[in-house]
Design a protein that fits this description.
alpha+beta; Arc Repressor Mutant, subunit A; Herpes Virus-1; 3-stranded antiparallel sheet; globular; Znf_RING/FYVE/PHD
């Protein structure tokens, strides 16, 4: 009920504008931004009230079918915040920024990453797709440039020639991925958000993010699956 929502101040508006222009903001940056916006606007600031501050903004975004969502970096477990358009749950939200052929390359790259065992696709495999596109064929040099743009725009991350989905992409497209890759997409058994880079229990098939695996097994005397209690055979990162 937006009638009951706390009032949106200039501090809230400024915070939202920066978040939207960044595409995605790391947790510590969001906390600094929260403090800066409150102090600039001379409104009450409490360091532990970022989530309340964001939920006030979200109550005003609700009628616009938008929301600030919190997600986790699969690499290091750090919190990130992104503004998500709830009205467009498909890759169509990228349609205004990219051509049809670029979107097709992105979808095929996404297929490779999500269907892979470790949540990565090599640049070689992705570039091999470039001349199999239905829209029209793409030269490998062109495809390399497009991949670079996807990394710059924070839809993909790249490390040593291996590509995975950026935290921004996972936050924004979680629902799209879960409904379009129902057979393979899984949620982390610990934090319950979508897990692309994950370890999987060989006995019962549950998955866990690498940072969640690290955290969970730190407290255990021996690594056993949190669901079926069988020995966890993957190497603990």
């Amino acid at each position: 009920n937006t009638g009951m929502a706390a009032q949106m101040t200039d501090a809230h508006r400024r915070f939202l504008q920066v978040l939207m222009s960044n595409g995605i903001t790391e947790g510590s940056e969001a906390r600094k931004l929260h403090q800066h916006c409150c102090e600039t606007d001379k409104v009450y600031y409490a360091h532990d009230k970022l989530d309340d501050f964001i939920s006030t903004i979200n109550s005003h975004l609700q009628p616009l079918f938008m929301q600030i969502r919190k997600g986790m970096s699969e690499e290091d477990g750090r919190a990130h915040y992104a503004v998500v358009n709830l009205a467009e749950t498909e890759v169509t939200k990228m349609a205004s920024d990219y051509t049809e052929i670029e979107l097709e390359l992105f979808r095929k790259t996404m297929d490779l990453i999500i269907l892979s065992e470790n949540g990565f696709a090599s640049s070689t495999d992705i570039l091999n797709l470039s001349d199999q596109l239905k829209t029209k064929k793409m030269k490998k040099k062109e495809a390399e440039q497009v991949l670079k743009v996807f990394v710059e725009d924070k839809w993909l991350s790249e490390k040593n020639g291996e590509y995975t989905l950026h935290t921004r992409c996972i936050i924004e497209m979680e629902q799209y991925i879960l409904s379009n890759y129902q057979d393979v997409a899984r949620k982390c058994n610990i934090c319950h958000s979508l897990a692309i880079q994950s370890q999987v229990c060989e006995s019962c098939g549950i998955g866990m993010h690498l940072p969640c695996v690290r955290k969970y097994f730190r407290a255990q005397t021996e690594p056993r699956c949190p669901k079926c209690n069988e020995f966890w055979s993957c190497d603990i990162p």
